[in-house]
UniProtKB/TrEMBL annotation:
<keyword id="KW-0443">Lipid metabolism</keyword>
<dbReference type="GO" id="GO:0004315">
    <property type="term" value="F:3-oxoacyl-[acyl-carrier-protein] synthase activity"/>
</dbReference>
<keyword id="KW-0808">Transferase</keyword>
<dbReference type="Pfam" id="PF08541">
    <property type="entry name" value="ACP_syn_III_C"/>
</dbReference>
<dbReference type="InterPro" id="IPR013747">
    <property type="entry name" value="ACP_syn_III_C"/>
</dbReference>
<dbReference type="GO" id="GO:0033818">
    <property type="term" value="F:beta-ketoacyl-acyl-carrier-protein synthase III activity"/>
</dbReference>
<feature type="active site">
    <location>
        <position position="282"/>
    </location>
</feature>
<dbReference type="Pfam" id="PF08545">
    <property type="entry name" value="ACP_syn_III"/>
</dbReference>
<feature type="domain" description="Beta-ketoacyl-[acyl-carrier-protein] synthase III C-terminal">
    <location>
        <begin position="236"/>
        <end position="323"/>
    </location>
</feature>
<dbReference type="InterPro" id="IPR016039">
    <property type="entry name" value="Thiolase-like"/>
</dbReference>
<comment type="pathway">
    <text>Lipid metabolism; fatty acid biosynthesis.</text>
</comment>
<protein>
    <recommendedName>
        <fullName>Beta-ketoacyl-[acyl-carrier-protein] synthase III</fullName>
        <ecNumber>2.3.1.180</ecNumber>
    </recommendedName>
</protein>
<dbReference type="GO" id="GO:0006633">
    <property type="term" value="P:fatty acid biosynthetic process"/>
</dbReference>
<keyword id="KW-0276">Fatty acid metabolism</keyword>
<keyword id="KW-0444">Lipid biosynthesis</keyword>
<feature type="domain" description="Beta-ketoacyl-[acyl-carrier-protein] synthase III N-terminal">
    <location>
        <begin position="106"/>
        <end position="184"/>
    </location>
</feature>
<dbReference type="InterPro" id="IPR013751">
    <property type="entry name" value="ACP_syn_III_N"/>
</dbReference>
Length: 348
């Protein structure tokens, strides 16, 4: 028995933060950001929106567009690095907001690899035979932990969420073998130093802005390229596939130069590599499901997809999947966007 994706939903906030706007607040330029990262703009949630709102909007988009009974969903896995609260779980809030009355839910934090980790856990739950319908969400409100005075990080991140429904199939479509990796020695290179049990929020942390994301960009960049390239090759080998048999690559969207370097190392044509970083930036747990959502019409029955991620921890991984039969679609696809406000200002 295999686990297969049968429905997809996504959500990004309507407010756009452009490179131009960022260049008015920190010492950078529109050209530098686009050339060094591939990002043109990113979406930013308003101060009344939390990660659970992004996640439940993505789930609502899924239910609006596919014929699925929400009461049949048995479990909800929420991958996020920006939970609504340290305690209670974001998944509990999402279960309630999304009317998943018969599902249990829990959060998973593996930073930018969170969705891939959760997908693997969800697939294993389905393949065990104990569960038939699971929703896996990747959702992050990165604007809640980004320092908009730090040009090393504020150019990179955005907010968003994507959701997939996993179901069982007797066919050979669906998730194949996955490789997940973790190396805690990378912790200090990419982290939010304060606000957890190591350094609880204090006057000092607020003064030194250590409650915001910090990263050693160039070091993380090199690690991401090497790790995603190697783990992708390993996942291909584990699934007895050659790069030439891959129809689409869905890479974590952290930097277009990372994506290009990984696809070059795999010798996969850039036309097969899905990219939406130009519009959304790095949405952490949401990049992969947002890519699946954005480009779902391109994926045809039986095509092979390669997903690969890298994130804080370090955490990384890759999987292959054979695209299966999607659930019946409802008449009109709804894309949730309110009025677009290009002049969003992020204030903390
Ligand atoms: N605007 C203008 N100049 C900037 C800048 C910005 N926003 N950010 C850094 N610079 C400067 C640096 O100060 C440095 O100047 P110097 O040469 O005078 O010292 C120069 O640009 C090069 O810095 P470097 O950090 O080597 O740049 P880079 O090419 O590596 O790009 C990142 C920086 C952050 C875009 C890039 O390292 C990156 O994407 N890293 C990985 C990010 C990532 O994947 N994070 C999440 C993992 S999930």
């Amino acid at each position: 028995m295999n686990a297969v994706i049968t429905a997809i939903g996504g959500f990004v906030p309507s407010s756009i933060l452009t490179n131009k706007k960022i260049s008015e607040t920190v010492d950078t330029s529109e050209e530098w950001i686009e050339k060094r990262t591939g990002i043109k703009e990113r979406r930013i949630a308003d101060c009344n929106t939390a990660t659970s709102d992004l996640a439940s909007a993505a789930i609502e988009n899924l239910f609006e567009n596919y014929n699925v009974d929400r009461l049949e969903v048995e479990a909800l896995l929420v991958a996020t690095a920006t939970p609504d609260h340290i305690l209670a779980p974001t998944a509990s809030i999402v279960c309630e907001k999304s009317g998943l009355a018969n599902a249990f839910g829990f959060d998973m934090n593996a930073a930018c690899s969170g969705f891939l980790y959760a997908l693997e856990m969800g697939a294993n739950m389905i393949e065990s035979g104990r569960y038939s319908k699971i929703i896996v969400v990747g959702a992050d409100k990165m604007s809640s932990i980004v320092d908009y005075e730090d040009r090393n990080t504020c150019i990179l991140f955005g907010d968003g969420a994507g959701a997939v429904l996993l179901e069982k199939t007797e066919s050979d479509n669906g998730l194949m073998k996955t490789i997940l990796k973790t190396d805690g020695s990378g912790t200090s290179s990419l982290l939010v130093p304060s606000g957890g049990s190591r350094n609880p929020t204090s006057m000092q942390s607020l003064l030194h802005r250590t409650n915001y994301l910090k990263q050693e960009g160039a070091f993380v960049f090199k690690k991401a390229v090497a790790s995603m390239s190697q783990v992708s090759q390993d996942a291909l080998a584990k699934n007895e596939l050659h790069a030439a048999q891959i129809d689409w690559v869905i890479p974590h969207q952290a930097n277009l130069r990372i994506i290009n370097a990984v696809s070059e190392s795999l010798n996969i044509d850039s036309e097969k590599v899905k990219v939406n970083i130009d519009r959304y930036g790095n949405t952490t747990s949401a990049t992969v499901p947002l890519c699946l959502w954005d480009f779902k019409e391109d994926f045809k029955l039986g095509q092979n997809l390669l997903i690969t991620t890298f994130g804080a921890g370090f955490s990384w991984g890759a999987t292959c999947l054979k695209w299966g039969v999607m659930r019946e679609k409802k008449a009109v696809e709804t894309i949730k966007t309110d009025t677009v406000n290009e002049n969003v200002l992020v204030a903390h």
